[in-house]
Amino acid sequence: MFKLRFAAPFVLGLAMAAPALAADDLSPVGTWTTFTDDHKPKSHVEIFDEGATLNGKVVEIMISDKGPNPVCDACSGEEQNKPILGMTILKGFKKTGDDLWEGGTCLKPQNGKLYKCKMHLIDGGKKLEVRGFIGFSLLGETQVWERKSP
């Protein structure tokens, strides 16, 4: 009985610390569902680790106003008139804090514009806030993506 009384707080402490330790290991690496303004699934974006940075590419398109095989006709440079499917639209993200990745860029294929961007995991890693902006983060747009179930 004496040992159990001292072991119980120790075990309880470990159980309470486990979620906090697991949260430190959260990463946006994986496949995410993007949504239209009226919350219909639009595409899947796979975020992957390329050593020091995270990048993301479009791996499936469910809704497009440019047909089943859209190209980035509004893009410039090497992306101009290239298929959006398979296109890397997130580049150069580095972890800067708890559940926060910054310093990257987001390409919006609908208008061909490149934005500064940051990503923040929320809801225990089930959702990802992706904020694209010009200049200051206050001048931008945030989308919430949901982690795709396996």
Give a topology summary.
Elements: H1 2-24, E1 30-35, E2 41-50, E3 53-61, E4 88-97, E5 100-108, E6 113-122, E7 127-133, E8 140-147
Antiparallel strand pairs: 1-2, 1-8, 2-3, 3-4, 4-5, 5-6, 6-7, 7-8
Beta-strand segment tally: 8
CATH topology: the name is Lipocalin
- Order of strands across the main sheet: 1-2-3-4-5-6-7-8
Q: Total helix count? A: 1
Strand-pairing-aware structural class: alpha+beta
pLDDT averaged over residues: 86
Q: Which residue ranges are poorly predicted, with pLDDT under 50 across at least 5 consecutive positions?
A: 4-24
Shape: globular
What Rg, in angstroms, do the CA atoms define? 19 Å
Provide the domain count.
1
| CATH class assignment | Mainly Beta
Task: Please describe the structure with a list of short key phrases separated by commas or semicolons.
Lipocalin, 150 residues, alpha+beta
Tell me what you see in this structure.
The protein has 150 residues and is of the alpha+beta class. It has a single domain (27-147), classed as Lipocalin. It contains one helix and eight strands; from the N terminus they run H-E-E-E-E-E-E-E-E. The protein has one helix at residues 2-24, and strands at 30-35, 41-50, 53-61, 88-97, 100-108, 113-122, 127-133, 140-147. It has an eight-stranded antiparallel β-barrel with strand order 1-2-3-4-5-6-7-8. A hairpin with a 4-residue loop joins strand 5 (100-108) and strand 6. The longest helix is centred in the first third of the chain and has 23 residues, at 2-24. It starts with a helix and ends with a strand. Mean pLDDT is 86; it is low at 4-24.
